[in-house]
Amino acid sequence: MDSIYFDHAATTAMSPEVLQAYIEAASFGPGNASSLHSSGRAARERITSARDVFATHLHCEPSELIFTGSGTESDNSALFGAALAQRKRGRNGIVTTAVEHHAVLNACRQLEAQGFSLTVLPVDEFGRVAVADAQAAINDTTAIVSVMAGNNETGTIQPIAEIGEWARKHKAYMHVDAVQAFGYLSFDLKEMPIDFLSLSAHKINGPQGVGLLYVRKGTPFQPLLFGGSQERNRRAGTENIAGIVAFAKAAELAYDQLQTRWNHVESIREAVLQRLTEQLGEDRFIINGHPTERLPHILNLSFTGISSESMLMNLDLAGVSASGGSACNSGSLKPSHVLTAMNISSERVSSAVRFSFGLGNTREEADNLAKITATISARLRNR
Ligand SMILES: Cc1ncc(COP(=O)(O)O)c(C=O)c1O
């Protein structure tokens, strides 16, 4: 049986068109966008065109976009950039949620160690934050609020618009980590109360090592990296031209096919659930995450009575790539902070497996996964 890759929330393969764009840009020859000669100008034009693609789709100005080296860098830049600038205005509160990616949570903890006052909002059993909790936590001393659009472990979507409106009322800045949601949800930054938005290329069939940060015009921002004057003095370092070009291509394709992408992964998710119910019985697994307010490509299941590690190891032996939590946690036995925050039973937390779907997945793979999982489950339960 061919191997099955059901770990697209960890990373995706570059699509053929993106790879072609990457190779074309990388083969073009040397060109440092800071150089004044023609090769440098050609490199700069490529970055400009890529930035225009994002500006068009995100409904913002090109000058509001900064290319970075990853989603992690975008998150850190937004949090440190805004928090340090806001401290000068007497604001030192940071509000985030217990289910953020570590790129946000650990950056917030670092800021807390530097004297900021951190509030981590709880979530309900589906991993969703209550708008009322956010409203109670945000006040006139809040520097920045960081709430993700869609969760990387459960797919749960957060009420970012309502929370952003409240943040705006109190003149606090709103950061949204849209790394997992981008490519499935669209973001109209003219309309939405968002001041910072983080994206990453490798989650949407783009290359690894490229990210984007939107910073609303007029928002005070202190750079994380110092050096040259790239990205209008907001992110020093020679630009990754091929990566940026390929990221823009991936974003263009994702926007052209937003609904088709959603429908495709949703149909695979449905097929997996249906076939697992037939093969295993519906009492053998529990879905973790919100039933309706969710991204379509993530399915987090607890196979109660079987540890995540045993299931993942056996799936891997059978050629199935899945994950036990966020990619950064895979390989470690630490229980997922996201599932733990949902206050579900420790048995459910320790038996959770995340399947995440992408463009190349087929219904046949969904069928095969169910068969493989049923065999593993019977074997492990009979031990
Ligand atoms: C929600 C979320 N934020 C941030 C990141 C970090 O992005 P990157 O891998 O580009 O650093 C990830 C990656 O898993 C993610 O899922």
What this model shows, in words?
With about 375 residues, this protein is an alpha/beta fold. The chain has two domains: about 5-10 and about 260-380, Aspartate Aminotransferase, domain 1; about 15-255, Type I PLP-dependent aspartate aminotransferase-like (Major domain) (Aspartate Aminotransferase, domain 2). It contains 13 helices and twelve strands. It has helices at about 15-25, 40-60, 70-85, 100-115, 130-135, 160-170, 230-235, 240-255, 260-280, 310-315, 335-340, 345-350, 365-380; strands spanning about 5, 65-70, 95, 115-120, 140-145, 175, 195-200, 210-215, 285-290, 300, 320, 350-355. The strands form three sheets. It has a seven-stranded mixed beta sheet, sandwiched between helices. It has a three-stranded antiparallel beta sheet with strand order 9-10-12. It has a two-stranded parallel ribbon with strand order 1-11. Helix 6 (about 160-170) links the parallel strand 5 and strand 6 (about 175). It starts with a strand and ends with a helix. Pyridoxal-5'-phosphate (PLP) binds near residues 70, 103, 179 and 211. Pyridoxal-5'-phosphate binds near residues 72 and 152.
The CATH architecture of the largest domain: 3-Layer(aba) Sandwich
Query: Into which percent range does the helicity of residues fall?
Result: 40-55%
What structural class is derived from the secondary structure elements? alpha/beta
Within CATH, the superfamily of the largest domain carries the name Type I PLP-dependent aspartate aminotransferase-like (Major domain)
CATH fold-level name of the largest domain: Aspartate Aminotransferase, domain 2
Major β-sheet annotation: 7 strands, mixed
